[in-house]
Every structure is written in structure tokens, then in C-alpha cells.
Amino acid sequence: MGRAFLHYYIAVNSVNISFCLLMLMFTNLMWLPFIFCTVGLAVGIVSYNYLFSNQYYFYYNLGFTRQKLAIAVLACNFFAALLPALLIYPFNA
Questions:
Q1: Residues ≥6 apart with Cβ < 8 Å to 78
Q2: How far apart are CA 15 and CA 45, in angstroms?
């Protein structure tokens, strides 16, 4: 089950990271962790729904619902963005 979630996590975050790098051209570095955890994640999940909607049957057969997958990716992204956020924000104060 871990490999299946890792596959979903990588697929969603590949779009997420691309979107964050695109948004980095229009915003400053301080917004990057926030965009990575919220807007970029939404863009990644919506793009996965559009491009690979049939794959959700595979995850459902393994016991993952769409909601569980989205919450798990959100939690992983929150902890992945926490350390860079703690390093970026004290210097911008």
C-alpha cells in the first residue's frame, strides 16, 4: 500500500511543484510554502482527477478513498513545507 500512495504522491506533487515554480516568478519566496500546501496541492489534485480519473478505482480497491488520499498528501506536504517555512520566515521579519 505504501508504494501505491507514493505513486499518487509523486504524481500529484509533480504538478504541484511545477505550479509552485511558476508562481515563484510572480511572488516572492515567502509565499512558496503556503502555495505548496494549499493552492498548488489543489491544482495537483484537480489535474490528477482530470488526467487519471480511472486510477482512483485502483486506489479504492486498495482501501484508499479520494478524501483519504487528499488528506494524506496534505499532511505530508505540510510537514515537508514546515522546515523551509521555519527557515524562510525568521529572516523576512
A1: 37
A2: 9
- Is the predicted pLDDT of residue 2 greater than 60, yes or no? yes
Burial (CB count within 10 angstroms: exposed 0-12, middle 13-18, buried 19+), residue 88: middle
Q: How far is CA 69 from CA 1, 9, 32, 73, in A?
A: 12, 8, 22, 6
Euclidean distance between CA atoms 58 and 37, whole angstroms:
25
CA atoms within 13 A on the CB side of 74: 11
* Torsion angle, alpha carbons of 30, 18, 72, 45, to 10: 120
Which has the closest alpha carbon to 8: 53, 34, 38?
A: 53
State pLDDT tens for residues 34-61: 899 999 999 999 999 999 999 999 999 9
Q: pTM for the complete prediction? A: 0.87
